Amino acid sequence: MNNLKLEAALNELLSPHLIKDYCPNGLQVEGKTQVNKIITGVTACQALIERAIEEKADALLVHHGFFWKGEPAEIRGMKFRRIKALIENGINLYAYHLPLDVHPELGNNAKLAQMLELEVIGGLEEANPRSVAMYGQLDKAITGAELASRLSIGLHREPLHIGDNAPTEIKTVGWCTGGGQDYIDLAAQKGLDAFISGEISERTVHIARELGIHYFAAGHHATERYGVKALGEWLAQEHQFDVTFIDIDNPV
Length: 252
Description:
Blueprint (H helix, E strand, L loop, with lengths): L2 H12 L11 E4 L7 E7 L2 H9 L4 E6 L12 H12 L3 E4 L2 H5 L5 H9 L1 E6 L10 E9 L1 H12 L4 E3 L7 E7 L7 H6 L4 E4 L4 H10 L2 E4 L2 H4 L1 H15 L2 E4 L7
Parallel strand pairs: 2-3, 2-11, 3-4, 8-9, 9-10
Antiparallel strand pairs: 1-4, 5-6, 6-8, 7-10
Helix pairs in contact: 2-3, 5-10
Keywords: Metal-binding
Organism: Photobacterium indicum
Family: Belongs to the GTP cyclohydrolase I type 2/NIF3 family.
């Protein structure tokens, strides 16, 4: 498929024009005109780029790409080396950030809900039809230790659990993959039993304790593996691309 037609297909699926983001979504670095082989991964780090080169990929599709709001504009140092490697090898770089988080079937939040057997009720941001944070419920109440175990098994990573002053059992849950820890306030306001995010801040511990809500920090990378993986699988099934997901280990 033509590289620009691939971008159009991804844009049609993910609707990036409907959400305000911190980076450009879509084709960030242009490479070969024809795309057959795609490597997917969480972050366009040098290690993933090198793997894409080794695999002779035509495109790299990630959740965390380049050109973030507030970062230096100059292309030098680490940014230069990454972009140089892509251009020299003709590799197209596609990146979808918040549009991939919120997609109702392939998104990071949707995949985390599926993994934890959570029924999605709606968005925590009630006035936002494309809320980044979600909430839902389990079919039956479980303990904090049981939810931590589900996260550990599903994500292959032990979560940090703050359960001081929290309910004995968990039935209702809010969540936001990646750096969504500050949505814990909305989860507590809604009276939810627990909130899950990828990252944690120092303040999050005190908020969870004082508002009496279970909190789980499950890892930014760990909670955001599955959206881009699912997106690649969709491309393979719907458009017959040769797609390989490569997980570059990241403990955070």
